[in-house]
Amino acid sequence: MVNAMKKDIKKVVLAYSGGLDTSIILRWIKEEYDAEVVTYTADVGQGEETEMARVKALETGASQAICEDLTEEFVSQYVFPAFRASALYEGYYHMGTSLARPVISKGLVRAAIETGADAIAHGATGKGNDQVRFELSAYALKPDIKVIAPWREWDLKGRADLVAYAKTHGIPVPVTPQMPYSMDANLLHISYEGGVLEDPWNGPPANMFTMTVSPEDAPDEPEYVTVGYEQGDPVSINGVAMSPVEILTTANDLGGKHGIGRVDIVENRFVGMKSRGVYETPGGTILYHAHRAVESLTLDREVAHLRDELSNRYAEMVYNGFWFAPEREALQSFMDDVQKPVTGEARLKLYKGQATVDGRRSDTHGLYDEATVTFEADDVYNQSDAEGFIRLQSLRLRTFAEKRLGEGE
Fold first, then answer.
1. What does pLDDT average to over the chain?
2. Are 232 and 325 in contact (CB under 8 A)?
3. Coarse DSSP helix, strand, coil percentages of the chain, rounded to the nearest 5 percent
4. Whole-angstrom distance, CA of residue 328 vs CA of residue 124
5. Predicted pLDDT at 230
């Protein structure tokens, strides 16, 4: 099937980062497919790295190098919706990579249409989740799109083969003995995997982290930050209204300064294997805890519990690459409706790697009633009512116990 497809492909748009894999893929596609290669580099928080990638792409043989700033779209239309869903994959992972892939895929497909390309290509390996995320997103947006996935086609077996290929073809190699792992960065996080991290017993190298200081080296005095929310979205920090990108950038700076947001996990990949990943998500961690704090005041108990049950399903959908699937979109509608009353402020204490809630308030939508919960005398709660409540709740337990004891247990 691949050989049959090759003769029909004359122009390819490659998702390009400028790293080892995609640099080699650029040259490989030109030679293997005898096709023109246009590179597409989406800026989802890498900043100046995108310009470096553009220059390198042209030097490596791209006919055109497209760079596009997607930071605002990434944060407002992908990160914040996931935050409204309170989504964590397997209880820890804020899904920085998972959320970036659909917005990149959307830009990649758009570039393919605009340049008249016959196919798109990506550098995800045949073992990882990203191949699924890129391709499911692309097919959801353009059902007839052709996809080239070199890691599933070529005979290069691993990083050593890629380095050798790069040296043979005069392609600069960004991987060095001082950085024996791979990185993926965007405005929400940095992920680290591979190399020395493949053994889950090995601790992360102390000099690996770039977004956060070590908690031991963080300031000895705590810092307090107040995050304002409207309908589930953060809109201000310390009373200053900000755009989504400004919110996340500011939260990243605060969290990084105090060593907040480091996670080291072994996660279950969609393709069936376990994988060790290390992540830095300083701003996302702060916003997650602030959001939960405001929700604790403003969400009805049963609504909050139902949302939490569905958050796990939502996270699995996003992690597995189904951002553009109807089930994720339907669930997003529920999540967004639930968030309508989530307006208020949360104050967090940042100290030595921890972000702890120090206060929360909601003047307009708070369901917390101090007059009801007080331990002092009140006129709104009759404590004797609890007796009947407990007796009704215990009815099935008493019935079950009587039956069991009557049988001689």
1. 93
2. no
3. 45, 20, 35
4. 23
5. 98
pLDDT of residue 376 exceeding 90, the answer is no
- At the topology level of CATH, where does 2-175 sit? Rossmann fold (3.40.50)
Residues 69 and 184: beta-carbon distance below 8 Å: no
Using alpha carbons, select from 308, 284, 350 the residue that is nearest to residue 94: 284
Side-by-side strand order, sheet with 344-351: 240-241, 233-237, 223-230, 344-351, 354-361
Taking the C-alpha atoms of residue 45 and residue 136, their distance in angstroms, rounded to an integer, is 23
Separation CA 165–CA 336 (nearest Å) = 48
Residues serving a catalytic function are 21, 101, 130, 182
- Mean pLDDT, residues 287-312 taken together: 98
The DSSP letter of residue 199 is S
Residues of the chain above pLDDT 90, percent:
82
Instruction: Give CA–CA dist 235/246, Å, rounded.
Output: 10
Q: Quote the pLDDT of residue 178.
A: 54
Tracing tokens 């007059």 back to the chain, one arrives at 371
Does the domain at 184-299+341-361 match CATH 3.90.1260.10? Answer given as: yes
Res 391 pLDDT > 60: yes
**CB contact at 8 A, 190 and 211:** yes
Q: Tell me the backbone φ, ψ of residue 258, rounded to 5 degrees.
A: -105, 15
Q: How far apart are CA 145 and CA 15, in angstroms?
A: 14
- CA 124 remoteness from chain centre: 17
Give the model confidence (pLDDT) of 128-158 as tens digits: 999 999 999 999 999 999 999 999 999 998 8
Kindly tell me the sign of the dihedral angle through the C-alpha atoms of 165, 169, 175, 178. Answer: positive
